[in-house]
Amino acid sequence: MLNTADGTMKFRRVVLVFSIVFATITMLILISDTPDCERLRLGLWMAFSIHFTSFLLLLFHFIGLGFILKKLGRILGIYYFYMVGAMFYTQIIFFQSKECNIMAPLLYFWVMLNIIMFYVLVAYGIALWGAYICWESEKEEKQLQEAMQKYIKKISHREKNNPLMVDLEKSSGKKLLKEEGEKKKKKKKQQKQKQLAIAGEVNELD
């Protein structure tokens, strides 16, 4: 079974290859002599910028320059907003350019494929994030169960050793009770002896 860490790494590799392939094809289409449609060309430039920057960010991660991404911080967050906004605007352009499917079919259907693949990757990323959350909860539950099992074993081990401890406690308790009983008996004996001595003195005085 593929765990979440392996799934995340696989997702990054897929996006890395996808980004460079789509960026290359998009650029080839943009510089080609294919029939043009001004609106769709703008959408393709936006798609190219997203593919190329995504490729660079993932490349930094794979070649050990991930610390650069950590330093970017808020700028990286702004980039994510740009990526979503650019693809959303590209989608608007696409729906407003229905006549371009005849004028520039290659541009039209390539923009459509870019939009579809963007949503596929987003859906896969969300599913992977959900799997990560479930994996974390399962991990915590497993750790809790392991801790409970260790605790139960510890308790059962103590219970096995408890009879000896109980016997020792009982024997020591009996000794204490016996000593206390003997002390009480001695006190009573001493009290009786005193009473007898006092009674003898009273008889002598009489």
From TrEMBL:
Regions crossing the membrane: 12-32, 44-69, 76-95, 107-135
Top-level division of the source organism's lineage: Eukaryota
Keyword Membrane: yes
Sequence ranges of Basic and acidic residues compositional bias: 169-183
This protein's UniProt keywords: Membrane, Transmembrane, Transmembrane helix
Region (Disordered): 169-206
Name the record gives this protein: Uncharacterized protein
Taxonomic source organism: Stylonychia lemnae
